[in-house]
Design goal:
Length: 248
Amino acid sequence: VAKDLPPKIESVTYCNMTDEQAELYTALTRKLRDQVLADVESKGMAKSQMSILDALLKLRQICCHPKLLKVDMPGFSTGSLPSGKFEAFKDMIFDVVEGGHKVLVFSQFVQMLQIIRGWLQLTDIPFCYLDGTSKDRLDQVDRFNNSPEIPIFLISLKAGGTGINLTSADYVIHYDPWWNPAVEDQASDRAYRLGQQRPVTVYRLVARGTVEESILKLHRSKRALAADVLEGTDVPLSEAELMDLIRR
């Protein structure tokens, strides 16, 4: 199939956090690292994996936007802190739309998609939306594919990773990296599949100097495992990989 398709161009866009966002990330990293290492010492690695994954989740949320974090941090008002990645994303969207392109925007965080949706509504940019609670899945797909005036489709990674054809789009943005690159590839292939006539550009947004960079490095080893994993299934992280992530 690949030889019958136009080129697919993939790139990583590194985004700097705002100063306030970086301070929050550093403070929470210290706090969570101490908690996790204490859990591992007292309970052992096997019984501490949920604690590690929860810590990583919170750090990944800050990378996307501090508003996603539901933890009280003295000295920080997470609900009002800006996000460097979100600002970079907005600039990218303006460029894509002004260039006459249609773009799929994937995130695993539904709340992040809702933040983006709110911004698009304020800017009067038309869009379609799909997450796991959407009841009009096929209607949203048809609207996007058949409406040249709608340039953006916001999609949760799990809800839109398989089963839909969105070849009207020639741009894909992954707002946040997922552990298993095969899951991201499946999502990108909603646009990059038979019927696509134009080159497809795939961007991955990564917060510089954070756990997101570490996740991106994991992609190299995970790609080698992806062929042995059933479609749509995440490749699990090993204990060593989990500990390496939390120590960074």
